[in-house]
Amino acid sequence: MRQTVVALLGLTLPATVLAQKLPDLDKVAPRYHDAAEKRRAHLITTKVCTDTAEKDKVLKRDMAEYINRCIDAAEQAQAGEAKAKE
Predict the structure, then answer these.
(1) What is the average pLDDT score of the chain?
(2) Whole-angstrom Cα distance, residue 49 to residue 71?
(3) Domain extent for 25
(4) pLDDT value at residue 1
(5) Which of 2, 29, 35, 56 could serve as a FRET partner for 66 with CA atoms 20 to 30 Å apart?
(6) List of residues 6+ apart from 50 with CB closer than 8 A
(7) pLDDT at 3
(8) Model pTM score
């Protein structure tokens, strides 16, 4: 019985409920804005890298490595842009 209930819940819950949501800066306390902005940027970068991996048809076994490389490259690009602004 319990397995049936768990299975039914698993089928009825939409995927968006299980996904991580982007932090809304209007709903975050002012002292946590910096952390929320960093988290939001990281989630967006991760989503872009995941979408790129799916578009490039990366195998599931190589997906984590591909995404990590993509995130590292994005962080280096952001650091380069920040350095250029100074």
Answers:
(1) 81
(2) 7
(3) 19-85
(4) 56
(5) 35
(6) 67
(7) 57
(8) 0.68
What total of structural domains would you count in the chain? Answer: 1
Asked if residue 13 is part of any domain, the answer here is: no
- The tens digit of pLDDT for each residue in 28-64 reads 888 999 999 999 999 999 999 999 999 999 999 999 9
**Residue 63 CA from chain centroid, whole number:** 14
The pair of three-digit structure tokens given for residue 22, joined into one six-digit string? 């982007």
Q: Please report whether residue 9 resides in a domain.
A: no
Take residue 77 and report the two structure tokens written for it.
């690009």
Q: Cα(77)–Cα(37) distance, rounded to whole angstroms?
A: 18
**For every residue of the chain, which 3-state class applies, written as one string?**
CHHHHHHHHHHHCCHHHHCCCCCCHHHCCHHHHHHHHHHHHHHHHHHHHHHHHHHCCCCHHHHHHHHHHHHHHHHHHHHHHHHHHC
Residue 75, phi-psi category: left (phi > 0), alpha (psi -120 to 50), beta (remainder)? alpha
Q: Would residue 3 count as lying in a domain?
A: no
